[in-house]
Specification:
With 478 residues, this protein is an alpha/beta fold. The chain has helices at residues 23-39, 56-70, 84-97, 109-129, 147-152, 170-183, 224-234, 290-303, 327-339, 343-346, 359-372, 387-394, 407-410, 426-437, 440-457, 460-476; strands at 5-6, 44-49, 74-79, 135-139, 156-161, 188-191, 205-207, 247-249, 255-257, 263-265, 277-281, 310-316, 349-354, 375-378, 399-402, 418-420. The strands form three sheets. It has a seven-stranded mixed beta sheet. It has a seven-stranded mixed beta sheet with strand order 10-13-12-11-14-15-16, with helices on both faces. A two-stranded antiparallel ribbon has the order 8-9. It has two domains: 5-211 and 459-476, Rossmann fold; 217-457, Rossmann fold (3-Layer(aba) Sandwich). α3 (84-97) packs across α4 (109-129). The chain starts with a strand and ends with a helix. α5 links the parallel β4 and β5. It is globular, with a radius of gyration of 22 Å. It contains 16 helices and 16 strands. GO terms for molecular function: glycosyltransferase activity. Homodimer. Residues 273-452 form the Glycosyl transferase family domain.
Amino acid sequence: MLKPFDVHVQAEPLTRFEPELDAAGWSTLQAQATRARALLAGRTFWNVSSTARGGGVAELIPRLVAYARGVGVDARWLVLTGTPEFFHITKRLHHALHGSRGDGSPLGAGEHDRYDEVLRDNVEELLVLVKPGDVVLLHDPQTVGLAPALATAGARVVWRCHVGCDTPNAEVARAWEFLAPGLAAARLTVFTRAAYVPPQCADRAIVIQPSIDIFAVKNQPLAPQVAHAILATTGLLRGTPGAPEPVFTRADGVPARVSRGADIVRLGAEPAPDTPLVVQVSRWDPLKDPAGVLRGFALLLRQSPDLRAQLVLAGPAVTSVADDPEATSTLQDVISLWRQQPHFVRQRVHLACLPMGDLEENAAIVNALQRHAAVVAQKSLQEGFGLTITEAMWKARPVVASAVGGLQDQVVHDVNGLLVRDPGDPAEFAGAVRSLLEDPERAARLGRRAHEHVRAHFTAVRHLTDFVRLIERLDARG
């Protein structure tokens, strides 16, 4: 019997945002908190997703739930459980919603039966917990099939799709056809971009962009020397004598130490602390194009052999993300490509699987890696919204991103970062990275503007206000 499990999230006070806002902004946020309490009095706001670790959704939900609980809303997070076959089907749907064939496996009646079977098991437990009038926010294709039973039980069901395709094709249509029975039961739908909204949702869609928590472990301030120490402990940088302890502060305020190492494929020694690093941090997913980043960086080295830069491609340990069955094969493909490179390229490319045994320790490692990077890349072939780029921009790092999907809403070309118009062109990517490495003043200027752009548009303050608007519209449709 497959049952969802509850992820406990500690309440976080909104007062931590007060120093970040002017008087008018703080007053508005307090008013929104009061409105949220009134709208949801006596009701629970449920979030249901497919994994508690790995990927942007698993990072986004707990922070928003924490702040909702901090203002007195009974917000909770449930994670469904599934079989390997179920997650293979939903990964295929994930690719299709991006307009990609993925592994090309079918999405027919048999697959729908197996998808429904897993969700029937999960919904039995949900129907015990969810009461009439509760709000249930279902995340991504793994959960949409829960909507009919929950809606019949009197819940106000919203489905949030974190992915999409700017130019829908036959694969996108195939995914929407598969999801149609569940989608019909959702009272509202939420998308990251207006371009992602399918015709059948046009009259009940709302656009809400994701955000980062600027106070999370992944985004907390780190002194450069401490970041170096964390990366040295993890094996991503060469250690230095007399370095401080590799410490960070947990979400509950308790100091902690990074102690786990990363699994790293490399040839030779760790980079020296003063070596400029080009970094991409993402799941091992072909749509994140880690192989394309490697090819582009190899081209950069061939064109500019005197550049001291090295590349770090980092992602989670491949066994740690339950709903991503392709991670291992994607990583193996990247390792195979790395082995095909000449010696001088392999010496300057590091493939790192970051430890996931302690999620806050993992966040501290990512924080240190992004803060230390000379350039942060996200050369995705498709991207609903790039949280890792937002995190790097908050840290005032110069970024290079593909001009696809939500990345276009985050990065304004040559204002707060650089966009690669053709993500399949390694020469364009190499040129953008080179331009930042060779012009540190320009890179720093873009980084400063990036930080202010995130402050204005992509923090939890804006996101929580969007959710109040969502509840108001949901109740109006009631």
